[in-house]
Specification:
single chain, alpha+beta, Helicase, Ruva Protein, domain 3, Tetrahydropterin Synthase, Chain A, three-stranded antiparallel β-sheet, 20% strand
């Protein structure tokens, strides 16, 4: 069985109508993940990518010192607090402390001392002062060697943080690719990074879509070759068309033309994969007035 909140969640993730969402959950015994696939196979889902939509407030930032870098995300409840200067200052303190102390896990990071108190105490104190839940969500540390370059880009004031590392080329080339990654939301560096289970799931969905469209069964494997290529162009950084290209060259080709090789990508988008807080501010104000 499934609840009304399951129908609402599926509708938000796919953009499908309420009746279609109910039918999908009926067909899939209440499994939201299977229902998403069912809706996609039927051509009903408008945008399954919404399953990873921005769903919480806060900041993603990047801190670099020489050959070391840290990308982190710290969350709060509202955009108002995310723009608060004290919140920003604390995020910077934490990011710089992690970079300096070479933390390798959230637990280590939370125990780092900053101004005679731990990062965890710093967050608790800020939460109490600003009146919102503030949480240390994640960070990734990275290092490069001499002859390698970081490229970083912060979009929308800290909504998206994109860090790229390349071998060869220069820091300007790396930054251009970091800007592209921020804008185009790649999930993987290249096709070899796509997990086999993910690829097979996508192919199953593509195959079912083609069958539903009436394509001959003996032609589907040939059609799939092109659809898989298109999928790689959507989700793999090196396969994407470079946003600044005038001749539709891929990011991989852009790097090759500049004597560079892509090493890795770290991309954080605030709140991705988290359920967004739903506020009815008019109702909240009225409740306060009537209370």
């Amino acid at each position: 069985m499934f609840s009304a909140s399951d129908v609402k969640s599926l509708r938000e993730k796919t953009g499908a109508g309420m009746l279609d969402c109910k039918k999908a959950l009926d067909e899939c015994e209440g499994s939201i993940e299977k229902a998403i696939d069912w809706l996609r196979e039927k051509g009903i889902a408008k945008a399954a990518k919404k399953s990873d939509r921005i769903a919480a407030e806060g900041l993603s930032q990047i801190y670099i010192n020489g050959n070391k870098a840290v990308v982190l995300e710290i969350n709060c409840e509202t955009d108002f607090v995310a723009k608060n200067e004290e919140f920003k200052s604390v995020v910077d303190k934490i990011g710089e402390a992690i970079l300096k102390n070479n933390a390798t896990s959230n637990e280590e990071a939370l125990n780092i001392k900053v101004d005679n108190e731990t990062v965890e105490d710093l967050i608790v104190g800020l939460s109490s002062k600003l009146g919102e839940k503030i949480s240390f969500r994640r960070f990734t540390a990275a290092t490069i060697k001499d002859g390698e370059y970081f490229g970083s880009y912060i979009h929308m004031g800290g909504r998206i943080a994109s860090l790229i590392a390349i071998e060869g080329g220069n820091s300007d080339v790396a930054r251009e690719v970091a800007m592209h990654a921020a804008a185009m939301r790649p999930l993987y560096v290249n096709s070899s990074e796509v997990p086999e289970t993910v690829l097979e799931r996508e192919k199953d969905i593509m195959r079912q879509e083609l069958l539903n469209e009436g394509k001959p069964a003996d032609k589907i494997d040939n059609i799939l070759v092109g659809k898989v290529r298109k999928y790689y162009e959507e989700v793999c950084l090196e396969n994407q068309i470079f946003v600044k290209a005038e001749n539709k060259e891929t990011v991989g080709k852009y790097l090759e033309n500049n004597g560079a090789k892509l090493l890795f990508m770290i991309r954080f988008e605030v709140g991705e994969g988290m359920e967004k807080r739903q506020d009815n501010f008019a109702e909240e104000v009225m409740n306060q007035i009537n209370g």
